[in-house]
Amino acid sequence: MALKLRAVVVGLGSIGRRHARLLAERANVAVEWCESSAAALAEARQTLAEPGCVHDSFERVLQSRPDVVVLATPHAAHAPQTVAALGAGIHVLCEKPMAETLAEAERMAQAADASRAILAIGFHLHFHPGLVRLKELITSGALGTVHHAHCRVGSYVTLVNSKSRYQRSLAGALLLDYAHQPDILTWLLGQRPRGVYMIGAQGGRLEHQSNPNVLAVACDYEGPLLTTIHLNYLQMPERHDYEIVGDRGWASLDLAQGSLRIGLQGDSSEQMETFSTERDPVYRAEHAAFFDAVAKQRKPESAAGEAIVSMRIIAAALESWSTQRRIEVGG
């Protein structure tokens, strides 16, 4: 019987608990927890089976030398924890965003280059069936040459569910929380933006706030392509959708509703496809890809060199917001 890999889930917020629950399903993984908050630990124990071991600090995790850590910790902890784990030869699946700053993300990428262990960033939307289908439409040429892509997320519930309320004090937290969007546009289109312009505002008579709590990002590219991102911490229930416009057709994807509309210019037809809105299968697919990468059966999905693109876009967007001018995207 093959030995199980020891995987420690670090941080037992809502995402950490999902990782712990789904990893426990895997026959090749022995799940452990790391959580310093007694309240968070008690909440996890109400819904999850007790693991083989519970660590009260990340330092104790490192001392125990697990095979894998899954980091579901606050943004500011991602870089130091990732660098330390990779330095100890421990594989890392780190939740998005990659880090709180571009400099920290670059430090993570350097540590990944120097380590024999792998680093993958948790952009699980790469495994979402609706987005996988959207990418197929783009890469197959069914929509022709893409000239515009737009994504929108409105999710006041994220602020409602936040335990620490860090979004109130961390400028630009909205864009960091939704690092998925600059990443997914890069993944879908296979192109990196040349320049970024961002505007943002804070408003609304709401109990929970962030600065900004509504923003728009426009990205330009080498060719005739424009992408836009709209994010807000105002809408409830949540909105999450994407639109791709090419010179032969268009596609509109609503993740919240599980629907994909496809319009084809050639015969003026419109098609509708549906898919599951369940989140667990997406995370299971992310885990499967990660452990396949650990076993050297594939390259890591969202490896550091790819994932850092979203941080470069975010850094340029936040600089644009503060300076009110277009900023070139480095790298």
Question: Mind explaining what this structure looks like?
Answer:
Helix content is 36%, strand content 26%. The protein has 331 residues and is α/β, with parallel strands linked by helices. The chain has 2 domains: 140 residues, 3-Layer(aba) Sandwich (Rossmann fold), CATH 3.40.50.720; 169 residues, 2-Layer Sandwich (Dihydrodipicolinate Reductase, domain 2). Helix 4 links the parallel strand 4 and strand 5. The mean pLDDT is 96.
CATH topology of the largest domain: Dihydrodipicolinate Reductase, domain 2
Approximate shape:
globular
- Number of DSSP E strands: 15
Name the quaternary structure.
single chain
**Mean model confidence by pLDDT:** 96
Q: Uncertain runs with pLDDT below 50, 5 residues or more?
A: none
Order of strands across the biggest sheet?
14-13-12-11-7-10-9-8-15
Number of domains: 2
Concise structural overview:
By secondary structure, this protein is of the alpha/beta class. The protein has helices at residues 14-23, 38-47, 58-64, 75-87, 102-114, 129-139, 156-161, 173-177, 180-189, 280-294, 304-323, and strands spanning 5-10, 29-34, 54-55, 68-71, 91-95, 119-122, 146-154, 195-201, 214-220, 226-232, 239-246, 249-254, 259-264, 269-274, 327-328.
Give the secondary structure arrangement, pairings included:
Layout: E1 5-10, H1 14-23, E2 29-34, H2 38-47, E3 54-55, H3 58-64, E4 68-71, H4 75-87, E5 91-95, H5 102-114, E6 119-122, H6 129-139, E7 146-154, H7 156-161, H8 173-177, H9 180-189, E8 195-201, E9 214-220, E10 226-232, E11 239-246, E12 249-254, E13 259-264, E14 269-274, H10 280-294, H11 304-323, E15 327-328
Parallel strand pairs: 1-2, 1-4, 2-3, 4-5, 5-6, 7-10
Antiparallel strand pairs: 7-11, 8-9, 8-15, 9-10, 11-12, 12-13, 13-14
Helix pairs in contact: 1-10, 4-5, 5-11, 9-11
